[in-house]
Structure formats: C-alpha cells, structure tokens
Design goal:
The structure is a homodimer. In chain A, 30% of the residues lie in helices and 23% in strands. The first copy, chain A, is built from twelve helices and 20 strands. In chain A, strands 3, 12, 13, 14, 15, 16, 17, 18, 19 and 20 form a ten-stranded mixed sheet that branches. In chain A, α5 (131-143) crosses α6. In chain A, 56% of the residues are buried.
Chain lengths: 440, 440
C-alpha cells in the first residue's frame, strides 16, 4: 500500500516554523523545527508521543485521494473538496495535486487562510454577508489577479449587499455568484425554484456581479426513512439541474461556463449521477462535488453512510474509502471493574454525531496493538476525559492497565480536526513521519 | 464599573506577534501587530470585526476577578483557578495578579503552555501517566528551580510510574503528589477511603515522591435530586478532610504544608465551608478551590448553578458572578418565516451542555443592541451555522434582516474558549480594546 509521501505535502513556511513545547501530541521539551519531526523516530506504540495524540494514517489518506479522483473521473464530475473539514494547508495541497478543481470553504476567514497558503480557486459555499467579510474576499480578488472565488446568494438582500460592496471596492472583474437552492425547514437557500430564479435574475442585472450557476447541499436530507431520503436527494438534484436549464434559457449566466454544485460526503454518488443528466446548455458545464470528509472518512456516521454508498455503487467490501484519523490516549485510571478512564475528552475528539469508537489497545513497547472486543465502548466524555466501559467478565478488563494506550476512531472528522492545531502523519506501524497543521 | 485594563493583561511576546489575515474575528486584510488591535477603533456594533467573533466584556471580567478574590478571603480558602477553561496566558496573569495561589491544569501539554508564559505554580489536577508527559513535567521541575507542580495519583500503579520516572530523571526535589478521592461510577479517583490511604502510604514510602495532600472533584455530583446532590457534596468534602486527618495521624505527609483541594464552579461555597472545618493538623493547611468557569460564568448551566449558589450564600440578585463571554454572528439568511440562519456553528460556540442563548440583535451602525424576545431560541447548530427560531407572529420576525448582528451567550465556557485562538476584549459599548490568546 502506497503511503502519502511527505514531499507531496510539504509547505516550507510551515516546515521551517519552530514549535514550542506545549503543542498537543508533541513530546518535545525543547523548541523543534517542524520539518525535523520526521527524523525523530517517534513511535506512537512505544509511547514516544504526548497523549492524547491525533494521527493520520498516510496509506489510508493516499488510498482515499486516489479513490475519489477515480470516482470523479468515472462519473464525469470534478471535486472541490470542502476544506472546512480539515483546514489543513498541506491537505489542501494534496487534494489540489490530486486533481481537485479548487477548495470549498465556509467563510471569509477560511478563504484568507487558504489563499495565504497558496490556494488560488475557492468555492465559498455560503452567503457572504458581513461587511468586513465581503471586503476581505473582494480585497483578495482585487490584489491577486490569479485568485478566483465564487460565492453564494439566496436573497435579494444578499445580492444587494454584494453589489454594493463590489462597487465600493472598485472590483474590475465581476464577482461570480451561485444561487443557493435550499430545503424547506432546513438551512439557508431559496425554498422554491421561483425564489431561486428571482435571485438569479437579480444577479444577472447587478453591476459587478455575474450569475455563475446554482448550488445546493443535499446532505441535510437525513431522516429515519432512508429510502425516502434517497428519493429526496435525487429530486433535489433534479430541481437544481432544472434551475440551470431555466436560467440558461433566459440568458442569465454571466460567466464563460455554468457551474452546478452539490454533494456532501454521504450521497455524492447520487449527486454525480443526477448532475450528469444535465446537458444541452449554451455554455460549457462544470459539475462540482464538494465532499470534505471523504479524505479521512471515519468510524461512525460517515462509515455507515459510505457503506450504503458502496452498496449502491457496487464497491466491494474493503475497497471503499478508509478511515484515516485516529485519536490515541492513555489509560489514566482503572478506578473500578469494567471502567477505564482515558486521557482524552471533548477537547480531543468529536462527540456531536457519536462518541469515539475504541479500536485497539497496546502496552507501550514492541509489537502490534490488539483489537478491543466489540463490547467495549466510550460511554461518556468530559472536557479532558473519556469513560471506557469494558464488558463484565471480559478478559480485557483484567488486561487493560494504567498506562496502556488505547486507539479510537471518531465519528465526524470536521469536529475532530478543529480540536488539533497539529496532527501527526504515521505509517502503518504508527511511526511518526511528519506533521500537518490546521488553522481554525 | 471598572473595566479590566489592558496593561494588567499585557504579555509583550504576544503583543509583539504579527497576526496574519485568517484569524477568526479579525477583520484584517494586511498583517497586524497584535498590540496594535486596541488603536484600530473597531466597533463590533458597527460591523467592524469579522463574524463570528468571540468577545470578553472587560467590566464583567474585572467584577468576577474581584468577586472571587473577596469570596475566597471571606471563606478562608485560596484559589488555583482551573486554567483549562480558558488556556489564555493573559487571563492566567490576571488571575495570579488578583491573588490566585497558582493555576490548575489538566495535562502536561497545558503545563508546558502555562510555564512558557510565566506561570510558576501549577496544580495538575490529573493522574500524570504517559511516559513522555511525566518526563515533560519533570523536565520543567528539573530545569527551573522556581517552578512548582503538584500532581495526582489514585493507584499503586500510578505511584510506581511516577517514582520510576522521578528516579530516571534524577529529580533532586521530591515531586509532591495529592491522592485523588473519587466517586463510585464516576471518573478517576480512589473509590474508598481505604484505597486512598493505601495510595497515600505508597507515596509516603516512594523515593522521589512526597505525599502533599488530598484532592477530589465534587462537580461530578449532578442528578435530578438537587437536595441529594448538595448532601452528596458535603459528605464528599467531609471524607476528603477525614483522609487528611488520618494521613496526618499516620505521619505520611512529606511536604511542609498539607494541601486539600476540591471545588469546580457549581458548589464552591459548599466546598469552602466544608474544607474550613478541617483543623488541628500537625502542619499548616492550604485549602484550595479550583473553579475555572467563575471567570466568565455563562448564560446556561453555570448561570443556573450560580443562581443557586448565590441563594445559598445570600448574594443579592445581580451581585453575583456575571457572564463575560459572548459570540456575535450575522444573519446570513432568512429563508422562511420564523427562521434566521446565523454565521456561527459548533466550531464557534459550545453545544455540549446547551445551545447558545440569543441575547440581542443590532443593525450595524450607531445605537445600542435591542434585546431579543424570550421566545427566540437557537434550536440547532451545524459546523458553521446556527438555526435561530423566532416566535410565530413576533415582530422580531419582521425586524431581523440579512446582515443584522445577533449576540449570543453560551453554556459552558470551556468548550467555547477552545474554539477561539483569539478573543477580543470589549468595553460595554463593544468597542474592541485588546486581544486575548488561547493555546489549545
């Protein structure tokens, strides 16, 4: 299995920075140049890192990069992965080097971070509203002719705000804008095609702005009725495509190509299949998926969603996207039978769509970690602690001792990445190869 | 009302750092020296900051610092505030300048951060277990004779690990250790006084270690039966005190004074009253509360707990600790009647003990914000969005428009601070005075 090489991810400005003691996961007691992490020879399984520590498995990352590139090529779509998931410049670089069209982001601050580290094409998948935030994005477009950014609007008020700031900032190229189609009772976005067309017409007529396409986020469709959810996703994508056709018929587009985008990390197959039905427009079409969590997958919500996606796509078990992100911590206390307290908590692992999933344990030293029996579960987390319940009568209850390492998968990469300013990239044997930064 | 002055919080190494565009809350498009933030004249209510933005109200902070200092003086206890709440060196400095005995922390990485920024006395309120983490703390003790750190143990295995590392590192002064008393079914800590005494005796006999006292965390006592909880807290503190007496009778203490510590942010009055009953020991006693959330309080869980504490202590309404931390965001979309989508999400505000509490709204410009009616509520958050429900038929539903600012209180400061590398300190009129850093 090919591991993602450090060279592909290296950013010299970050490799040259001097890390001070006090960065989560790093066992340093003296300042250390970040680029020198790989030559330290730290082995997580020997207890060399600080704990808790967040690790990214390079082989799984490379597999997922390749898998998604092939998926998009096969389905005739392109990827602008949601960068808010990781906010890691090195991972943005790996995604772009692997064929991504651009990076999707959620707000102006994230756009500034991405631009600072070399990203030159951004899909800002949100309404850009606050004056200082509009100005921050327009300033980048003004100062850097190589920078491209497309933003969303879902109301006439939003269009008016963008037009006003574009005029005030003296932008010499039109700001491309996608109209967001939403879902009743859900998040932002026009609730009806009629509303969406009204916003599209306003964009077509607004000086300094250009209608570039339509956008939606089908990932909010999630209920107890999975079959209905799937139909809902297909219907939503059909509506999005119909809007593009209607706006094209009216001659509203102001950009050289028409951009249509949807696709989180649960239904991107249905999105790709739906978008590809769009054809016969007057300008070239660009169909963009925006999945962010494909890069690491997880051991929770996305694992379950991706197993369903694999079944729909005929992907053989084990050949789909692989979980790449784990949190390792230490058994801090065995205060009573059946309970181990771990040195990780809400500050270290996501808890919004399920608690971490204990995978393996290891007594620091040589050898491979052993799987934890399936009855083991994290049942609660405090800010800095996790409660690992061990099945009554299970031999693990005797085996797991103070000081043992426990590796956990997580559910929801976005809310785990944002708890780590630095993650460690590891080989299959958990030797630390290099570091990845995040900017939240 | 006195505001906390910037000078009291200034750390020149942080004031001198150059902030790059892309830091949450900062509206900058060029690099800016952190110490120059206060002269920018940014007014949040004019929409000058980036959004979302986390603000600390300086007058409330100063009030809370004064209030807690007076409380401790009146109750004959000292404060080692839990620094994990804020992980802000400037706030550590303000707490120490205001009479705190030391800073409490949760793990070795946090200790390294605090030491780097000048903290010289730490209560590490956790078992220190991982080898690299034990070594990191011992290294600070070895290299810096002015640095003091006391840690916890709750098992013979833990004592053995500490003793082994203390010997390996050649520590010339004994490492002071508190025995943790726990609660059945809860987190770490010895479950019975007998277990705690066994650990205490092991510490007394371990080379390189010294029994310094006893510690517990009563904040885990929380059920639907509040009266029973209060009795449980009192009983727990009585047991903690009895352990100190018993260990003193046996001559187990190895430090010049005996340290007994408990106290989160919900019951610290009961803890103070309980600890003060301890007397007649052979050495000077140091009674330490560890509340972290007193500094900012909140509009959720702690607000409710502190109202009960105020009632127990006879504090007049409005004279207790005040909420100091707010998150302001922008109405990004009004996609349907009764719903406003805000530009803040799980990445910006805690959601583990209650969703944010909408307080006020304001159209950017002069004037004061207006209170939101009590029927308004944040009903859901995604990673980057909040769903603000407005009561049907409420005039606010017509008033609140795209681009309006909404200020929210939060529930649980710890899990909000850790989402902000930088918070802005503001006056009563939300003019930005200076910045505070966090290191998570």
């Amino acid at each position: 299995m090919n591991a993602l090489p450090h060279g592909a991810l290296s950013l010299s400005s970050l490799d040259e920075q001097i890390l001070q003691p006090g960065v989560k996961g790093l066992p340093i007691t003296e300042p250390l140049r970040q680029g020198a992490i790989g030559v330290q020879g730290w082995k997580l399984l020997h207890g060399d890192t600080s704990f808790p520590v967040a690790v990214l498995k390079t082989a799984a990352l490379q597999h997922n990069l390749d898998w998604m590139r092939d998926f998009c090529a096969r389905h005739g779509v392109q990827l602008s992965p949601h960068g808010k998931t990781t906010m890691s410049p090195q991972l943005f670089g790996a995604q772009l080097a692997n064929g991504a069209w651009g990076i999707t982001l959620a707000n102006a601050i994230q756009v500034q971070v991405a631009h600072r580290f070399g990203v030159r094409r951004v899909l800002l998948a949100n309404q850009l509203v606050a004056r200082s935030d509009v100005r921050a994005v327009l300033r980048l477009l003004h100062d850097d002719p190589d920078f491209e950014c497309v933003v969303l609007a879902d109301s006439l008020a939003g269009v008016a705000r963008l037009a006003e700031e574009a005029a005030a900032q003296g932008l010499t190229r039109a700001l491309p804008v996608l109209v967001e189609l939403g879902l009743s009772g859900k998040r932002a976005g026009c609730r009806t095609p009629e509303e969406a067309m009204t916003v599209a017409r306003a964009l077509a007529g607004a000086p300094g702005l250009a209608l570039a396409g339509f956008e939606g986020y089908e990932g909010l469709i999630s209920s107890d009725d999975h079959a209905a959810d799937l139909r809902g996703v297909e219907h939503f994508i059909d509506r999005l495509c119909a809007l593009a056709s209607e706006a094209d018929d009216e001659g509203l587009f102001g950009t050289a190509e028409i951009l249509v985008s949807a696709g989180g990390s649960s239904y991107f197959d249905l999105v790709a299949n739906g978008l590809r039905k769009l054809h016969g427009l007057s300008r070239p079409l660009r169909l963009i998926l925006r999945s962010g969590c494909y890069l690491t997958s997880d051991h929770g919500t996305y694992k379950r969603d991706l197993e369903k996606l694999d079944a729909r796509e005929g992907v053989a078990p084990g050949q789909g996207l692989r979980p790449a992100l784990e949190i390792w911590s230490v058994v801090q206390s065995r205060p009573e039978p059946g309970l181990a307290i771990l040195t990780m908590g809400k500050r270290d692992a996501s808890h919004d769509t399920g608690l971490p999933v204990p995978l393996a344990f290891h007594r620091p030293g040589p050898g491979a970690p052993r799987a934890l029996p399936s009855g083991c579960a994290i049942v609660k987390m405090n800010d800095q602690h996790a409660y690992l319940r061990l099945p009554a009568g299970d031999p693990t209850d005797d085996l797991l001792a103070v000081g043992d390492l426990v590796g956990c998968g997580i559910s929801h990469p976005c809310t785990t990445f944002d708890r780590w300013p630095l993650l460690l990239a590891v080989d299959e044997d958990y030797t630390v190869r290099f570091a990845l930064n995040t900017f939240f």
